[in-house]
Specification:
Elements lengths: L11 E7 L9 E12 L2 E5 L5 E5 L3 E6 L13 H11 L4 E5 L2 E5 L10 E2 L8 H14 L5 E5 L3 H8 L3 E12 H8 L11 E3 L4 H6 L10 H9 L4 E6 L9 E15 L5 E14 L8 H16 L3 E7 L3 H9 L3 E10 L8
Parallel strand pairs: 8-9, 14-15
Antiparallel strand pairs: 1-2, 1-5, 2-3, 3-4, 6-7, 7-8, 9-16, 10-15, 10-16, 11-12, 12-13, 13-14
Helix pairs in contact: 4-7
Length: 346
Amino acid sequence: MNRITPEDVGRRVSVRRLLSGPDEPVQYGDVVGDLTGWADGVLTITRRDGSVARVAERTLVAGKVVPPAPARGPAAVPVEALQSAADRAWPAVEYAGLGDWRLRASAGFTRRANSVLVTGSPDRPLPDAVAAAEAWYADRGLPAYFQVVAGSAADRHLAEAGWEAQARAIVQVARLGAVADLLGDPDAGAPGTVELADAPDRSWMARYHKVAAEGPGADAARHVLAGPRGTVFAQLREPGQEVPTAIGRATVDLGGSTMPGPGGLATGLRVVSYTAIEVDPAYRRRGLGRRIMAALTRHALDAGATTALLSVEDDNEPAVRMYAGLGFAEHHRYHYRVRTADTGTH
């Protein structure tokens, strides 16, 4: 007997299905994974290794909700895989390579899109790589920021040279199905509806605090915000208001990064990156941020994502508490290193 319904989307399930045809010996097959979709008579189940099974509802013999899989430790997903996913979710206008390092420039719109993504190794000694990056940014009239994993070799080198650490952030991950369970329906028993769109409109941009809807930097901001495939924008308005009270953004990335799988084989990391979750200060503590997260999470599940990714500045205590309550766990920390007046020119 089937014990699962479309209401179980987002949960981990075990189903048995009929594999054989009407004139063949009876044969069954089992599938265990996150139920990430149920539409048009087809169930979509994403296994722990990232592979996807599509099961016709008419072939179901039995099904049940099962406990979440034992969580892999934070070290199970390489730092580099999450760095790559986050970079694709916030793409710079201009890129250049320095060995494995990625130099990014976007007319000064956000540190992330105007900094060196320090990953792997540069193609030259560390002091020479730092000098080359500084020259590249100087040519563009920008300061050189280095996004470094806290405690890494590059971080230690820059710290010893007197570079200041800014915008300390915590990278957090979670199993998406578990996040969806905790968030529930974004519009249940609440006024208004969370609206989703493929691009940021003027009202969304009006709420976003990091850039004006028009003027210098707006074009670069739109490139960064709307550039990635699989990106969706959420907003929630009070009746009669043009500017939303809460907004958010999520980018679904299916398989662009890899992580170790069974037997050491690489498997796709099916990740959703959350960014730009903002609530009007006058409307905080009303659950609006959770509603935005819930709508984005439901969208990401429907798109096939299984891992949730976000970063939060470590001094943003309300956000850290909210995400902890949704099952997010710390993966690693990063910050930006920037030369100060006391550091000197080289």
